[in-house]
Specification:
The complex is a heterodimer of chains A (461) and B (142). By secondary structure, chain A is mainly α. Chain A has one domain. Chain A is 66% helix and 3% strand. In chain A, strand 2 and strand 3 form a beta hairpin. In chain A, helix 4 packs across helix 8 and helix 17 runs parallel beside helix 20. The longest helix of chain A has 32 residues. With 142 residues, chain B is of the alpha+beta class. Chain B folds into two domains: 35 residues; 89 residues, Immunoglobulin-like (Sandwich), CATH 2.60.40.420. Helices cover 23% and strands 39% of the residues of chain B. In chain B, a hairpin with a 4-residue loop joins strand 8 and strand 9. The longest helix of chain B has 33 residues. The chains are: A mainly alpha (461), B alpha+beta (142).
């Protein structure tokens, strides 16, 4: 049986499981922090009011000017187009082709990591938004009027992005585990299919509208960007207090599902070779018994397990929401469900860091050395003289990776508790009732964080 | 304000606990890696260099028909020691250890021996290069 999800196909080094003693320490700290959080909680919301300072008018105008927007958009379109070209024309070896590392590591992991610090970095470089807006401008110039768009159905909310996120992770984790590796050509073709879909949706609903709700990458990266310190308000750049923008994120249907899907897909990727490996193996056996082929059995079972993980993670959150509803004075279930969704963003980020931090550090070395100099992996080009460089796996010791992994989960846990406590104070002006409601969210957070620690500690052999 | 002070206190306690755990790590780490000789699959090359190479328990991965006999073998080592193992195959192949990027040819019906220092920590694959089949997983613990 050879499982080859994307992390295996790209980097040669895999993480050792977190040792038992560190797992125990991590879990203890999570519990201690949680109990202190209950007793030390503040009594007035801290994050709910926007705290921001606008940039100087000149700087703001320059950075948001039309030429700057066109330049950023062009950079995005060029890099995306180049990655697709490399995927179609370059080598089939996943680790020697620019496309897979650029799409699945540099962008798919880089934008969440850096947006969580600096705010939504993807929006200016979004290639589909750039094309959509250019098309809109072209239409206006020719027709002399704005293109007429359908009204986006409010109830759909972020659900198209939820489906899209599951589809992308399916391609990344499940498709590649079916015996065959995820070939650069397949990824490039998928990217082209997605482009057609995204542009069609933008034509229907308008570029900005679709990017706000349905365009997977905008919505997913933007979610992490809400934690970051830079944003725009009334057409002006501003510096804001970290995490405050997250409080207004989950106002659209499907938001809770999106953040839960993020936690679930990362969990599934981590568990498919560790905690769930034996169950998946059994499931594959059953699928083969009912007459499916080998590859079909693996993909079918993996898909079922990915969806089960999504269901289980959602169930935990739903139970927490149900619990909060029992506290006197609670708002409706629907309001609670959306109202606390943003508190899980730090946990989703912590899961990403814990599972992919080392892959990112290793593979970015490849990105900026041989993948840059020899993007097609032909072995004959050397654009920047770095084609023969390799990845230095000594830059991170096993201990360093473990501390980052466990540290990320603990920090994410604390941030999630802070955001949840803050939101509870909005819904229950009585401080004691707010605290009572937070026993439930605390249980949810402890469950997610300890599950995350457990996944890291399970041997993936 | 009292609440804020409590929160700061809580964070300090946590920081202290984490620092303690970090200090305790080296002791615990060595004891943990010291008992890896259990388990038939895992094996450590003995640190006693007195014995001649033949007498040491060098694990051998047997490859038949392009597949490792008994599934992918897990070999555990500690950083700094020598990684030693043999591969015997009924068909000619190239054995490639990823990460370390060491490749050796094994002739049909022959055996090839690997012997190199464990400089990189983490988990690495050894595979049949032509077929792309993984035969072993090298775990190098800190």
């Amino acid at each position: 049986m050879s499982f080859l999800p994307i992390a295996h196909a790209l980097a040669s080094r895999q993480d050792l499981p977190v040792p038992a003693w560190l797992f125990a320490w991590g879990a203890s700290i999570v519990l201690i922090v949680s109990f202190f959080a209950l007793s030390a909680g503040w009594r007035e919301p801290r994050f709910e009011q926007p705290h921001s300072r606008p940039f100087g008018a000149g700087l703001s105008r320059a950075l948001l000017s039309v030429p700057a927007q066109i330049l950023c958009g062009a950079v995005g379109v060029f890099l995306f187009g180049f990655a697709v070209y490399a995927g179609l024309e370059g080598t089939v070896a996943p680790d020697r082709n620019f496309a897979l590392t650029f799409l699945f590591v540099t962008c798919w992991l880089g934008f969440p990591f850096f947006s969580a610090i600096f705010g939504d970095l993807f929006r200016p470089f979004n290639p589909w938004r750039a094309i959509g807006r250019a098309a809109g401008a072209g239409f206006r110039a020719i027709a002399g009027q704005r293109a007429a768009h359908l009204t986006y159905p409010e109830r759909l909310g972020r659900w198209p992005a939820v489906i899209g996120l599951l589809a992308i992770v399916w391609l990344e984790v499940v498709y590649g585990s079916g015996g065959a590796i995820l070939e650069p050509e397949v990824a490039a073709t998928a990217a082209l299919v997605y482009t057609v879909y995204a542009l069609a949706m933008m034509a229907l609903f308008g570029a900005e509208e679709w990017c706000d709700r349905g365009e997977v990458f905008s919505v997913y990266f933007g979610m992490f960007g809400r934690l970051g310190i830079f944003g725009t308000h009334d057409g002006r750049l501003e510096r804001r207090r970290p995490f405050t923008a997250a409080t207004t994120w989950a106002t659209v249907p499907g938001s809770a599902a999106l953040v839960l899907a993020s936690i679930a897909t990362t969990s599934y990727d981590g568990a498919s070779e560790g905690a769930f490996a034996d169950f998946i193996e059994t499931g594959i056996g059953w699928a083969e018994d009912i007459g499916l082929g080998v590859t079909a059995s693996i993909r079918f079972t993996d898909t079922v397990f990915m969806l089960l993980t999504f269901a289980a993670v959602s169930l935990v959150y739903w139970l927490g929401v149900r619990g909060m509803r029992t506290v006197p004075g609670a708002p409706s279930l629907a309001k609670l469900r959306t109202g606390f969704a943003h508190t899980l963003i730090p946990i989703a980020l912590a899961y990403l860091v814990a599972h992919y931090f080392s892959l990112f550090v290793f593979q970015e070395q490849a990105q900026f050395t041989y993948l840059l100099s020899d993007p097609l992996g032909t072995g004959t080009t050397d654009l920047f003289g770095t084609a023969s460089s390799g990845v230095d796996y000594t830059v991170l010791t096993a201990n360093a990776i473990w501390y980052v992994q466990v540290g990320a989960l603990i920090v994410g846990h604390v941030l999630a508790l802070m955001l949840a406590h803050d939101r509870a104070l909005v819904y229950w002006p009585d401080y004691r009732k707010a605290t009572a409601s937070q026993y439930w969210m605390l249980a949810v957070m402890v469950a997610f964080t300890c599950f995350g620690l457990y996944l890291l500690s399970v041997s993936n052999g | 304000m009292r609440d804020v002070r409590k929160l700061v206190l809580a964070l300090l306690v946590v920081a202290a606990a984490f620092a303690l755990s970090a200090c305790g790590s080296s002791d615990d780490g060595t004891t943990a890696s010291g008992n890896t000789e259990s388990g038939s699959k895992s094996s450590k090359s003995a640190p006693e260099a007195e014995k001649p190479a033949e007498e040491q328990d060098v694990p051998t991965i047997v490859v038949r028909g392009g597949e490792p006999v008994g599934g992918v073998q897990t070999l555990e080592f500690s950083a700094g020691e020598q990684i030693r193992f043999r591969v015997s195959s009924d068909e000619a192949e190239e054995i490639h250890v990823h990460g370390y990027d060491i490749a050796k040819d094994v002739p049909a019906g022959g055996t090839v021996e690997f012997d190199f220092p464990a400089e990189l920590e983490g988990i690495y694959e050894a595979e049949l290069e032509e077929l792309g089949v993984q035969i072993a997983e090298l775990r190098i613990n800190p």
